[in-house]
C-alpha cells in the first residue's frame, strides 16, 4: 500500500508541475504584440501632417510576469490612455509594451540600463531618439494607484514640455 500511495503521489506531483509549466508558457504568450506591430499600427493611425516629435512610453517585461509586473503595466496603460487620449490619437504619444526576453528586443536592456521590469519615457524627434528617462519609482508606487498614475502622467507631461 505504501508503494502504491507513493507512486500515486508522484504521478499527481508530476501532473501538477507539467500543468503549471504549460500554464506559464500559455499565459506568457497570449495577447503579446511585438513592438514592431505596435509601432506600425501607431504610425499608420497618425494623421497626415502630424508632429514629427513623439513621446513613447515603454513598459518592458520578461517572459515570467508576476502580479506586480502586470499591475505596473496596467497602471501605466491607464495613466497614458486617460491623460493622453488626444495625444495617442494624433501620434504625439505612443504606448509600447515590449518583452525584453524576445531575441530582437534584448538590446533595450543595454539601451535603457534595465535592471528589472521598467517604464521608460523616450523622446523621438524625426524618428531619432533625443533623450530618455527610466521611471524607477513605479516599483515603490505600485500599491498606491493615484500616486502611481500622478507619477507617470507628471513625468510624461514634463517630457512633452521638454522640462523632464
Give your account of this protein's structure.
With 164 residues, this protein is of the alpha+beta class. It folds into 2 domains: 1-30; 34-161, Glutaredoxin, CATH 3.40.30.10. The chain has 7 helices and 4 strands. It has helices spanning 2-29, 35-45, 67-83, 85-90, 107-111, 138-141, 145-161; strands at 53-61, 93-99, 118-125, 128-134. Strands 2-1-3-4 form a 4-stranded mixed β-sheet, with helices on both faces. Helix 3 crosses helix 7. It is elongated. The termini are far apart. Residues 21-50 have low confidence and may be disordered.
As a percent range, the share of helical residues equals: 40-55%
Beginning-to-end CA distance, first to last residue: 70 Å
CATH architecture of the largest domain: 3-Layer(aba) Sandwich
Class from secondary-structure proportions? alpha+beta
Shape: elongated
Count the domains: 2
Counting DSSP H or I runs of 4 or more residues, the number of helices is: 7
Could you tell me the CATH topology label of the largest domain.
Answer: Glutaredoxin
Name the CATH superfamily classification of the largest domain.
Answer: Glutaredoxin
Can you give the mean pLDDT? 80
Looking at the chains present, what oligomeric state does this protein adopt?
Answer: single chain
Radius of gyration: 20 Å
The SSE string, one letter per element, is HHEHHEHEEHH
Number of strands: 4
Amino acid at each position: 500500500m505504501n508503494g502504491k500511495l507513493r507512486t500515486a503521489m508522484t504521478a499527481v506531483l508530476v501532473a501538477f508541475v507539467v500543468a503549471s509549466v504549460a500554464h506559464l508558457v500559455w499565459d506568457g504568450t497570449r495577447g503579446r504584440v511585438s513592438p514592431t506591430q505596435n509601432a506600425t499600427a501607431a504610425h499608420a493611425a497618425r494623421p497626415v501632417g502630424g508632429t514629427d516629435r513623439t513621446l513613447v512610453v515603454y513598459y518592458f517585461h520578461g517572459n515570467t510576469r508576476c502580479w506586480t509586473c502586470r499591475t505596473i503595466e496596467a497602471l501605466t496603460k491607464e495613466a497614458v490612455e486617460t491623460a493622453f487620449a488626444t495625444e495617442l490619437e494624433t501620434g504625439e504619444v505612443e504606448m509600447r509594451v515590449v518583452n525584453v526576453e524576445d531575441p530582437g528586443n534584448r538590446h533595450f536592456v543595454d539601451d535603457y540600463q534595465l535592471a528589472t521590469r521598467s517604464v521608460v519615457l523616450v523622446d523621438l524627434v524625426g524618428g531619432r531618439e533625443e533623450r530618455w528617462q527610466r521611471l524607477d519609482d513605479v516599483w515603490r508606487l505600485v500599491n498606491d494607484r493615484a500616486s502611481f498614475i500622478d507619477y507617470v502622467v507628471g513625468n510624461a507631461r514634463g517630457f512633452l514640455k521638454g522640462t523632464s
